[in-house]
Design brief:
Pfam families: DUF6735. This protein has 194 residues and is an alpha+beta fold. It contains four helices and seven strands. The protein has one domain (5-186). Helices cover 26% and strands 23% of the residues. The protein has a seven-stranded mixed beta sheet with strand order 3-2-1-4-5-6-7, sandwiched between helices.
């Protein structure tokens, strides 16, 4: 399965060339391994480009699937290969058809990354239990989770896929009364979301 990361190298025109790392999402240290001498982190990053001359916003909307990736690393070769690493957070519980919501949170050390990972997993699990008990709708839980990522962790929410690519607005699933929702445990299309 791997711990996937996208690594985006800023070009002189402020766009990015994107590469993939199969195990780069496992640790924050991937950014520290990227230098002028080892721009592909000694083979940890695939040399084939996933995207070429991509805007920063389009990295999120067209490439950074929050169901697939655990990290995003932005590299500034013109600034002595300075890197900024982000933890990717999937802000939904079920795979949706069309766009899905994700969030990124900057993590500069292993301790910060571990704290954000545990905080997000605990918050999302608790909200899933509250939805499952019928006390909160999935839409309300998702809105709350997104607000917490953005406000408490200074993260940025984004829409990946349909809608996000075309610049359209994200439409969250319709809100329903808890008794009208299919119980999360009864759904066949639910993936392990962490």
């Amino acid at each position: 399965m791997g711990h996937r990361a996208l690594v985006a190298y800023r070009r002189p025109d402020q766009r990015y060339d994107i590469r993939y790392s199969h195990w780069g999402g496992e640790r924050v240290a991937l950014g520290e391994q990227i230098t002028a001498e080892t721009p592909l982190a000694d083979g940890s990053i695939n040399p084939e480009m996933v995207g070429h001359a991509v805007s920063r916003d389009r990295i999120l909307s067209a490439y950074l699937d929050p169901c697939t990736y655990e990290r995003l690393v932005l590299v500034a070769p013109g600034e002595d290969y300075r890197t900024t690493t982000y933890r990717v957070c999937w802000l939904e519980w079920a795979v949706s058809h069309g766009g899905c919501r994700g969030g990124i949170v900057a993590v500069d050390t292993l301790a910060v990354d571990e704290r954000v990972r545990i905080w997000f997993q605990a918050t999302k699990t608790t909200l899933a239990d509250i939805v499952e008990m019928g006390a909160l709708s999935r839409r309300a839980a998702q809105t709350y989770l997104e607000a917490r990522v953005c406000e408490e962790e200074d993260g940025r929410a984004y829409t990946y896929g349909e809608g996000g690519v075309d610049g359209g607005e994200y439409a969250s699933p319709p809100d329903r009364r808890p008794e009208e929702e299919t119980r999360l445990s009864d759904r066949e299309d639910v993936r392990d979301w962490w």
